[in-house]
Amino acid sequence: MTGRRGDKKSHRSSSPRRPVSLSPRPSVPLITLLTDFGSADYFVGAMKGIILSINPNARVVDITHEIPPQDVPAGAFNLLAAYRSFPAQTIHVAVVDPGVGSTRRPILVTAGNQFFVGPDNGIFSYIIDRERDARAFHLTNEKYFRPSVSATFHGRDVFAPVAAALSVGVEMESLGVEVNDCARLGPLTPKKLKNGNIRARLIHIDRFGNCVTNLTPEELTREMIAKGARLNVNGKAIKTFRRFFAEQGRSKDTLFAVWGSAGFLEIAAKNQSAAKMLRARCGQTVSVSTRP
Known about the structure:
alpha+beta, seven-stranded mixed β-sheet, 18% helix
């Protein structure tokens, strides 16, 4: 899938695909919400009202509504970190949508035996990268939208009613047209270089200032770390690896690396913001030297 846009015909999948085998829909559907709406305004409540008006039996769970405004990569990472905590057939509504009202498409993604509803702006990139069975649909059937669609609130008028429709058994194919050109963020998998080094990147900076890389133990193994692997961000080297944030080691280095709860290597500093110390930004390159 690429970020290319085209007419509706070009969005159709070029090769027929068998329907994905999904678990039976649960008797009490579960719908999650992830947004940058905060809690001061009516937005989240309105979305819940629409869902419950269509399916009063649905359970609605908040993942978070504190994604920084318009920060699509932060939304993508938090969704990636959370979705596997939920049972099969969960419907996730993710709305971080600076392009609302523009030509960006509303989409539905099915992946990992779960559903994801939201804007086609890259927020589902990491889910699509991780789950090989991912399929995407451009939501075109306005029958399942709210009768009057606001140009500024698709969370309420498009994504919430579509999620509710899914929860009462409407099939994906009835909601729109399958596509294979969804908008994407940078790749989730780091690049292995010919000399054995790795080119990774920062995919998230959390509220503590910890810098989350896209490195997993698959790319940066225990053996590589034991042989002296080190990270470099903005000209600063991180060569200390710890098991947890408060671990007392021999090294007095302020900056260190630790495997985070989402499964990625994080750069941290005890009781300080590693991001401020590194002057780091999401998307920056992390160079990994695998040899001392």
